[in-house]
Amino acid sequence: MSVLLSFGHGYSARALAPLLLARGWTVIGTTRSDEKAAALRAEGVEPLIFGAPLADALGRASHVLVSAGPDGDGDPVLREYGDLLATGLRTKEWVGYLSTTGVYGDHGGGWVDETTALTPSTRRGRARVAAEAAWQALDAPLHIFRLAGIYGPGRGPFAKVREGTARRIVKPGQVFSRIHVDDIAQVLLASIDRPDPGTIYNVCDDDPAPPQDVIGHAAHLLGLPLPPEVPFDAADMSPMARSFYAESKRVQNDRIKNDLGVRLRHPDYRAGLADLLRRGRDDDTA
What we know:
Keywords: NAD. InterPro entries: NAD(P)-bd_dom_sf. This protein has helices at residues 11-21, 34-42, 55-60, 76-88, 123-136, 158-163, 181-193, 211-222, 239-243, 254-258, 269-278; strands spanning 3-7, 26-31, 46-49, 63-66, 94-100, 111-112, 142-147, 149-151, 168-170, 178-180, 200-203, 229-231, 250-251. By secondary structure, it is an alpha/beta fold.
């Protein structure tokens, strides 16, 4: 029987789980609270409180997915279970690590691909580069997935547009790449079906775009007035939100198409946002 052990079983992993459960897989997901454990159990996932003994779950697993990101002290999964994972992953059929396109740093709106040098300009990006290297150092059939900005049910612009709190923040030349969570799930599934240890995949859609265009299109779909435009330098933003504007790049996604045969369900934000509205998923909670 195929069994996925999912560390940090959050938004992206929860989109993958139903696809595997439909195939008859068992999915074991780690979480940090009893409340979240109950929610996972209701979704058909076996919960495992992070920090509990891992040997049994790891022994059962044929596949391993790591969604937990690094914190101020490094990679939390390796910190907690590193000794066991150092020897316990080599016999697995597939190991996946979810990283971020932030590892590439700022390219002034230029294109990057999986061979581009890693030159992150933010602390989060540097932590991801270190975490990738730590996982690559293990004896494991590792696949790295560098995710662009994630959106989907519960993670879209519609609520703020409806509330009238949305702003179109404009920084000249700024572009972001994005990916719908449904497409993350299908990329992971395609890789599980076609394992190629050591490979790195950029996971993004076909249309890097300025953030203000996405907000404007959401308003258009809702038939609401265009939110006001605010220059980046004058915008009232949290340090975290402002840091996302420190880097501008367009991310190439040819490898997921050519190597994995993926055909994106949502090739751009227009298709993704329209689908959320059409299926009534725009106000879902994550």
